Amino acid sequence: MAPMVHGLEAEYSGKVKFTYLDADDPRTDVFQQTLGFYYQPEFYFLDASGNLIKKLVGFISEDEFRSLFEENL
């Protein structure tokens, strides 16, 4: 999934901010608990104020990503 996500990141540069969380890094434990993280991969779509729009778990198609981006831009 990483190549697809990185491709979308390049395509939506300046419109959508992508942030990556290292789930194996203990320094992210509090953030993981706040998000309710439990499985890889997980994707969190937040608005400009940091409010959760949608959480997706597991494989997500490129079309699903594009739809979410377009609905929320």
Structure in words:
By secondary structure, the protein is an alpha+beta fold. The protein has three helices and two strands; from the N terminus they run H-H-E-E-H. The chain has helices spanning 2-11, 29-35, 62-72; strands at 42-46, 52-57. The protein has a two-stranded antiparallel sheet with strand order 1-2. A hairpin with a 5-residue loop joins strand 1 (42-46) and strand 2 (52-57). The protein is globular and about 30 Å long. The model has no long low-confidence stretch (mean pLDDT 92).
Q: Whole-Å distance between the termini?
A: 22 Å
Topology pattern, helix = H, strand = E: HHEEH
What proportion of the residues is helical, as a percent range?
A: 25-40%
Strand order of the largest sheet: 1-2
Strand content: 15-25%
Q: Output the structural class.
A: alpha+beta
- Main beta-sheet annotation: 2 strands, antiparallel
Radius of gyration: 12 Å
- Model regions low in confidence, pLDDT < 50 over at least 5 residues: none
Mean pLDDT metric: 92
Number of helices: 3
Inertia-based shape = globular
Please tally the β strands and state the result: 2
Topology (elements, then pairings):
Elements: H1 2-11, H2 29-35, E1 42-46, E2 52-57, H3 62-72
Antiparallel strand pairs: 1-2
Compose a concise summary of this entry.
The chain contains 3 helices and 2 strands.
Structural descriptors:
alpha+beta, two-stranded antiparallel sheet, 3 helices
